[in-house]
Specification:
This protein has 17 helices and 30 strands. By secondary structure, the chain is an alpha+beta fold. The strands form eight sheets. A six-stranded mixed sheet has the order 1-19-20-18-17-16, covered by helices on one side. A six-stranded mixed sheet has the order 5-8-3-2-12-14. It has a four-stranded antiparallel sheet with strand order 6-7-4-11, with no helix packed on it. The longest helix has 19 residues.
Length: 623
């Protein structure tokens, strides 16, 4: 899961503000669990779901809705969104049901059970009030959530719609979805019913179903094929009509083609689905911005004002999850317990290596320069040192990631986790004289395990050590398991890279030296420019004056209710981008036009300085 930390942006911008029974249900065919989801007859923003189990011979059975799903690392309690749960026999007569907890129902006389039925509420409706929720706690991250807009759009992360019978998680699932004929459904699963108003999806087991989200909306879909991989992009953008599949696909195609070339024969995914939801960020809409990985797809929620580059960077991270955890994962993930999970110790692998590859492939494939890559890694070091403790066992954090204290540290897998992967790469490069790296290690692990053969958590580090060098095992033990502070420059020196002061553009256009160049006027629901000096070159280039009321930015109206969305478009702004800011100055409306200019800041970073190690550096970044 890659999360965009909007709360940090907002704070920076706005500093001032069991016996057998004689009968048994026949259930689904050949042991199938049969599911029907009705997206046509939506009542009061709720969807009806019917599930028929395979044969049950016990006196009681337990039905569950997931408490948590893989990739989120936080409790969701999807059962909160279930209403009017019933268990029925073949004649439609209710059976006795006891709700054990928010996600669990115990059904009596289970041998007579024909089906369970219930209504599903969507999760997007409950997110109003903060960057992620109305209370900031126990809120489902939007890309892992659900949306029900009758006749317009349905976001089906299956954990929010389909539950499981306790002893039938490994049974095949047959899912029939009826939907408005003018809406198109997209998933990594193939539709077995080619009619306009019904889809049928088959999953080998419950885990595969949960790993296969579906999005329905107007047919804004584009696709391409590269090296036997079909990539499908489905976009729902109700307001910003410039964000379309056709507009995004050229850059996505360029990116994924480069990723495929970087991965080589490791990636053999036949189909990859990208389900992009563009939120209005308004009432009853998604607030959690980012994406959630699935083995063969990603669900993504973006703001209308985010640049296409920001969208594509997030998607690139998720695509690398086709390597891990799809091909390399532990038994805790393979046999994931959706209600009482035991977490794996190796988030540093699943997320850290993935994030490292999402940066490395870009310089490897010529999409960014070597200096840009080093600047990205330096920024990760800076964030890791500022936001998280220097001494932390990543394996302990990973195993206990559901604990509140560890959840606060979890985002460091995208910072320090990527840096740890970089160091392992550099050690392997050094010991192999540039002939191998961490990508070769991942290829070996993929061949050894693969999608259907999980490893024991305890065996991974000894296996990696055996496949590489003792120095790699020592590094993992010292810095990942024991969590000692690390000097990254020690490892970068192996490829001729030294610490240096570098210049880079500010991330937030309206912030210089932690001073915001705007303020909120709550009484009049306005955002005003504050221009006490001439130090902000963006403000100067656009001609903003003190007390200008900022009415619109690039066509997006700005007031207090949507300032996170609109001002988010000024985060990581591209130098030279054409800008149009509408302001009210002394009661007169004005259009301020110009090209974005950004302040440069001097920050600690890295530079390649040792020409004698050019070959080592090139083997790392270009091979």
């Amino acid at each position: 899961m890659k999360i965009r930390l909007l709360s940090i942006l907002v704070m920076a911008l706005l500093l001032s503000s069991c016996a057998s029974t004689r009968t048994a249900t026949t259930g689904g065919k050949s042991g199938q669990v049969a599911v029907t989801i009705d997206l046509v007859n939506v009542l009061d923003d709720k969807v009806k779901v019917v599930i028929k189990p395979s044969a049950i011979t016990s006196q009681t059975t337990i039905f569950r809705i997931p408490r948590i799903i893989p990739g989120t690392y936080m409790i969701a309690d999807y059962g909160r969104y279930i209403e009017k749960f019933e268990a029925l026999d073949k004649s439609g007569k209710p059976l006795a049901v006891t709700q054990q907890d928010v996600n669990t129902w115990v059904i009596s006389n289970a041998g007579q059970l024909d089906r369970v039925t219930y209504l599903v509420n969507d999760t997007f409706d409950s997110e109003e009030g903060s960057a992620f929720s109305d209370d900031g706690t126990n809120t489902i991250f939007s890309p892992a959530g659900t949306n029900i807009l009758a006749g317009k759009q349905f976001y089906l992360n299956m954990a929010g719609f389909v539950g499981y019978f306790e002893n039938q998680v490994n049974n095949p699932y047959h899912v029939t979805i009826s939907h408005p004929s003018d809406l198109v459904g997209t998933s990594s699963l193939e539709d077995e019913d080619k009619s306009a108003a019904n889809d049928i999806f088959l999953a080998s087991r419950y885990a595969e179903l949960i790993d296969s989200p579906v999005m329905y909306s107007n047919p804004d879909v584009a696709s391409f094929t590269v090296d036997n991989l079909k990539v499908v992009l489905h976009v729902y953008s109700p307001v910003n009509k410039e964000i379309t599949s056709a507009a995004l696909m050229p850059e996505i195609q360029k990116m994924i083609t480069a990723q495929k070339k970087f991965l080589g024969d490791i990636n053999n995914t036949p189909k990859y689905a990208i389900l992009a939801y563009i939120t209005t960020y308004g009432k009853d809409d998604a607030r959690g911005i980012g994406a959630l990985e699935h083995n063969k797809s990603t669900t993504a929620v973006f703001m209308q004002t985010m640049s296409s580059d920001d969208l594509i960077q997030v998607i690139s991270h998720e695509f690398f999850h086709t390597l891990t955890p799809l091909n390399v994962h532990s038994k805790e993930i393979h046999d994931f317990d959706f209600n009482n999970p035991k977490m794996s110790a190796h988030l540093w692998l699943y997320e850290g290596v993935t994030e490292y590859f999402a940066n490395l492939f870009q310089v490897n494939q010529g999409l960014i320069s070597e200096d840009e890559f080093l600047a990205h890694m330096a920024e990760k070091e800076s964030l890791a040192s500022k936001l998280y403790p220097k001494e932390i066992s990543f394996t302990e954090m990973s195993k206990n990631v559901l604990d509140p204290g560890m959840q606060e540290i979890y985002p460091n897998v995208y910072q320090k986790g990527a840096l740890l992967a970089m160091c392992i790469d550099l050690i392997i490069r050094d010991k192999s004289n540039g002939q191998k790296g961490i990508l070769d290690l991942m290829r070996q692990l993929s061949n050894m395990y693969g999608p259907t053969k999980p490893f024991d958590d305890a065996e991974l580090i000894p296996t990696i050590t055996k496949l590489t060098y003792p120095e790699v095992g020592d590094f993992i033990k010292k810095y990942i398991v024991e969590g000692e502070p690390i000097d990254y420059s020690k490892f970068l020196k192996l490829v001729g890279v030294e610490r240096a002061t570098i210049s880079r553009p500010v991330q937030i256009a309206l912030l210089v030296d932690n001073k915001p160049y705007l303020r909120i006027d709550k009484a009049n629901n306005q955002v005003l420019a504050v221009v006490p000096d001439d130090k902000n070159v963006f403000v100067n280039a656009m001609g903003l004056k003190d007390n200008d009321v900022i009415v619109e930015i690039n066509g997006q109206k700005l007031d207090i209710s949507n300032m996170v969305t609109v001002l988010g478009g000024l985060y990581n702004l591209e130098e030279g981008r054409p800008m149009l800011i509408k302001v009210k100055r002394d009661g007169v409306m004005m259009d301020l036009k110009g090209n974005a200019k950004l302040n440069q800041v001097e920050t600690p970073g890295y530079k390649f300085t040792d020409a004698a190690k050019t070959a080592a550096k090139d083997s790392w970044l270009k091979k």
